[in-house]
Amino acid sequence: MDFTPTRGAALARLAAFLPAAGRRYAETRNADDGPRAEGRGNVSQLSPWLHAGLLSETEVLEAVLAEHSPRAAEKFIAEVFWRIYFKGYLEQRPAIWVDFVKGRDGALAALDANAGLRKAYCEAVEGRTGIEAFDVWAKELVATGYLHNHARMWFASIWIFTLKLDWRLGADFFLRHLMDADAASNTLSWRWVAGLHTKGKHYLARADNIARYTAGRPEGALDAVRLAGDEAEPLSEAQDYARQKLDLPAPMTAADLAKPFALLLHDEAAHHAPLALPAAPALVIAAARPEARSPGAVGAHALGFAQGALAGGMEEAAAAFACPAAQWRAGEPLAPLLAAAEVERVALPYLPAGWTRDALWPELAPLTAEGRVVTLLGDLDRATWPLAKAGFFGVAKAIDGLLAECGIAGHPAPASTGN
Length: 419
Ligand SMILES: Cc1cc2nc3c(=O)[nH]c(=O)nc-3n(C[C@H](O)[C@H](O)[C@H](O)COP(=O)(O)OP(=O)(O)OC[C@H]3O[C@@H](n4cnc5c(N)ncnc54)[C@H](O)[C@@H]3O)c2cc1C
Hints:
This protein has helices spanning about 5-15, 25-30, 45-50, 55-65, 75-90, 95-115, 115-125, 130-145, 150-160, 165-175, 185-195, 205-215, 300-320, 335-340, 355-370, 380-385, 395, 400-405; strands at about 260-265, 285, 325, 345-350, 375. It is mainly alpha-helical. Strands 3-2-1-4-5 form a 5-stranded parallel β-sheet, sandwiched between helices. Helix 13 (about 300-320) links the parallel strand 2 and strand 3. Helix 4 runs antiparallel to helix 5 (about 75-90) and helix 5 (about 75-90) crosses helix 11 (about 185-195). The radius of gyration is 21 Å and the shape is globular. The two termini are about 15 Å apart. Bound molecules: flavin-adenine dinucleotide. Flavin-adenine dinucleotide binds near residues 86, 178 and 189.
């Protein structure tokens, strides 16, 4: 599968997948048919490009609705909304991310202090547990940077309930290797499997289910022996994460960007096209911080995708706006870059809770306090996030209205430029 980290490759994959986004997706999406050179036929594999902002959810939904009726594409559309829901949910409970980071660091320290635990952890991440399916997915994740959704669910369930490892170590393993690694979708999905997201409702992997939905893999159905049985209890925690009020930026106006400004591209917004800026920036700045996702080593696919997305995005934006570009490297101050280009303001694509915000915010906070940052947030996030208060149902029942409110009615995607 060609995971080239460019907008051109994203549009090409979207175009190739579109015919399958209707009823076929609903009927076949649960099967993990294994990695394929030509890409999987039953799921889009668009998540790395979506996470990097090389393509937006709005563009995907427009393209799908240009080809399928809302009913035929209902399932695919709902999955895209799961991504937006998780983002909105974490924005309203950012302490979940803060506690994940603390808990992960504690769990990593515990590994150093306990040889038995360390051994069990190494066996899991190196795919040496003796549970065939789990071992295949552990190696596949490292080798390809992607896992099918069902495999992620089974893997997380076996990690937590059969191997009895700390869920935060598993979530960290995913973040280090997934090309689509996303603070909201990953943390909240692991919590969902554990029974912490929907309290008391956990997800238990079953060998017959794994065999059924992996039968189409090139090596045949995967075996999963001695999995935790139905008696396994969901995890619980003392904290009750209260919802805090969303503080969303006001919609941007042309006046906000009337004076010379810099466009700041980052790991979750690596391309200018989905941002639809009303004016051209005087400078493009790229801030790649993929290493900030974990204290551990980030896998080659995850690192390469994130770095490539920003390097290419910066080049394409500089060419499109005929302006200079600069990299803002970790540990360097931002102000001199702005001063050298004589720009007053920074157009900042919204930084959701996660490692990118953690890494960039200390430098951006003083500029924000001085009123020099214009935060960009798309209509779909702005309309959907407030509905992500509790379970997904609150968003699911509003999807038709949200599409109408955001004017998403079915427009073909821009043609791929091939790069
Ligand atoms: C334990 C676990 C960890 C996960 N970690 C991540 C992560 O770090 N980053 C990430 O993007 N997704 C994560 N997911 C969600 C989901 O597995 C992936 O988004 C999906 O597999 C991506 O493949 P695709 O693009 O082929 O999806 P498709 O089935 O083609 O769906 C289209 C798009 O909808 C979104 N989507 C689909 N399913 C989900 C879902 N369950 N939750 C949220 N969004 C969804 C994705 O953006 C995806 O690209 C995780 C799921 C689990 C169970």
